[in-house]
Amino acid sequence: MSTRTSETMKAIQVYTEGDPEVLVYEDVPRPTAGPGEVLIRVYAAGVNPADWRARAGFPDVPEKFRHAIPPIPRPSIPGFDVSGIVEAVGPGVTEFREGDAVYGMVRFPHGGKSYAEYTRAPVTDLARKPVTLDHLQAAAVPMAALTAWQMLYLDLEASQTVLINGAAGGVGHFAVQLAKLKGARVIGVASGRHAAFLRELGVDQFIDYTVTPIEQVIHDIDVVFDTVGGENNRLLSILKRGGRFVPINIGNYSTEHAALAGITIGTSHHQALQSSSVQLAEIGKLIDTGQVHVVIDTVVPLAEARKAHERGEAGHIHGKIVLRVVEEGRCSRPPAYPLA
Ligand SMILES: NC(=O)c1ccc[n+]([C@@H]2O[C@H](COP(=O)([O-])OP(=O)(O)OC[C@H]3O[C@@H](n4cnc5c(N)ncnc54)[C@H](OP(=O)(O)O)[C@@H]3O)[C@@H](O)[C@H]2O)c1
């Protein structure tokens, strides 16, 4: 029986780490906006690997790195990416008013709580929603686009060649478009099913990693942007002396080898991903002027968040997964994954 009142809302909660079944749809207290925050009526919540990895207790993170994982209180509401309408403003807020459409990545990495009908967010984590996007599309943008912006776009130069590993995924598809906007030459690596999609996004060269080992065909490039991780030491060997290797996932590469080869690891701008209302506004402008496109892999209703995580963990993502919280508008692209 529902215990819903005007002070409660529907949300997904996680009581214990585990498989997607631990995502429970239930009534929880509705939050209120504190100082410097707004209360958002959530229309859509973006789904990221960070969400399903946190739900599962980050089983892929080796022991030596586990101290860096922020503690997750239980029960907790997952989700960082949100698009919605400002329902109320907290004390001291002048940036937004009730009724404004906003999008953002909320409280990363400490818990944004966007898998819910309402969420509260610091205004510094938000920007106005791009007007050309519906909420489903806007919720797909923040974490993936901010990662591509902070970890690749800011350092990249027009004269450079960049290899983007994992080019068809959430981060990768923004990275490809932003690198092309910078004027760089872009090599996209993905499984063959994404070849046409990535050529449409503008890659100059496509490599199907299931057929061709990257290091057999690529040498002496300027930048490797690796969203895949794992055994990525071999990616150092395709960089020229003075090149840059940007891993955003956990991988095995030798910092000693990189130093000997004169390779810089990481970015010069951001040590770790952070939200930025300024960058979200700039990304929004590129979207509204048709220079960056958002691609949706799958849309799932909030109540069925479990299916979104199952889709994510099945792999081979083509763009982004989004939770629909309020029915409105339609996606520009039909889901690539059947919603049972
Ligand atoms: N450090 C940070 O702050 C930060 C921020 C955002 C994301 N991340 C991490 O970055 C990773 C990627 O995020 P995402 O949102 O882009 O994930 P995603 O949407 O799941 O996309 C991953 C993509 O990688 C491709 N892929 C898988 N194995 C591959 C391989 N061996 N070679 C090339 N491509 C491969 C997949 O499709 P195909 O196999 O079909 O090509 C898929 O398109 C996640 O682990 C996430 O946690 C880190």
TrEMBL record:
GO molecular function: oxidoreductase activity; zinc ion binding
Domain of life: Bacteria
Domain Enoyl reductase (ER): 18-323
Annotated Pfam families: ADH_N (PF08240), ADH_zinc_N_2 (PF13602)
Keywords associated with the record: Oxidoreductase
Name this polypeptide is given: NADPH:quinone reductase
Organism of derivation: Ktedonospora formicarum
